[in-house]
Design goal:
Layout: E1 3-4, E2 9-10, E3 17-18, H1 20-29, H2 33-51, E4 55-59, H3 61-64, H4 69-78, H5 81-84, E5 87-92, H6 93-98, H7 100-110, E6 116-122, E7 139-142, H8 144-147, H9 154-169, E8 173-176, H10 182-190, E9 195-196, H11 199-207
Parallel strand pairs: 1-4, 4-5, 5-6, 6-7, 7-8, 8-9
Antiparallel strand pairs: 2-3
Helix pairs in contact: 2-4
């Protein structure tokens, strides 16, 4: 479906490239998440232009509260219209619960660019999003806590199946995050999941040279 493209940053010159768990709290503290997110989008667009592979970038919920973020993002996307059509953007489920109107506006602004928008780490609070269909989403990624063990736990599998049926009824694609083994993968496919992320998928992508 797309390559997930998590951003890594150097916090010190010539230092290691740090994962988001290390740099995101620092960026949030100094209100730089929107600048970092725009950098990530620029890198993703450059990558798509080089190899043509669709990519997905995660946006920090805090970026949505920056009044200048969406106009700058929109300008970036309109500057590369053919490439932007292969870009997906996602935000954590909490953004849909706590920043509904801001997420709705983001969706409205990027839709003309052909960019897909989705939720990640979804599951526990999906029921709190009363107007999920009004967000203009294309996909929802169910979090690992929701999908893990579906191959060995019939109750867990039923929860996933019900979530998939609900989201499919809203014309949303449903992906499973963090899948590690064959048993869970088989159970999730049986539930109607559209795509899988995590070690299970990474191994197979690497095996075919993706």
């Amino acid at each position: 479906m797309h390559l997930e493209a998590p951003l890594r940053l150097q916090l010190e010159p010539s230092g290691a490239f740090e994962v988001a768990a290390r740099w995101l709290p620092l960026a949030a503290r100094v209100r730089m998440t929107s600048d970092v997110d725009l950098c990530a989008v620029a890198l993703a667009l450059s990558g798509i232009a080089l190899d043509g592979k669709p990519r997905c970038v995660n946006l920090a919920p805090a970026s949505l509260a920056d009044s200048g973020f969406v106009p700058r993002l929109r300008a970036q996307l309109f500057a590369a219209p053919r490439v932007a059509r292969k870009l997906s953007l996602e935000v954590a489920e909490v953004a849909a619960v706590e920043r509904f109107s801001l997420l709705q506006e983001l969706s409205r602004q990027i839709r003309p660019c052909g960019v897909q928008l989705g939720l990640e780490h979804a599951g526990a609070r999906l029921g709190q999003i009363e107007r999920l269909f009004d967000l203009g989403l294309e996909f929802v990624k169910l979090d690992e806590a929701t999908t893990r063990g579906a191959g060995r736990d019939s109750k867990r599998m039923k929860v996933v199946q019900c979530s998939v049926e609900l989201l499919h009824s809203l014309s949303l694609q449903v992906y499973a995050e963090g899948v590690c083994d064959d048993d869970d993968a088989r159970a999730l496919w049986a539930c109607g999941i559209d795509a899988i992320t995590g070690p299970w998928a990474t191994e197979r992508t690497s095996a075919v040279g993706g």
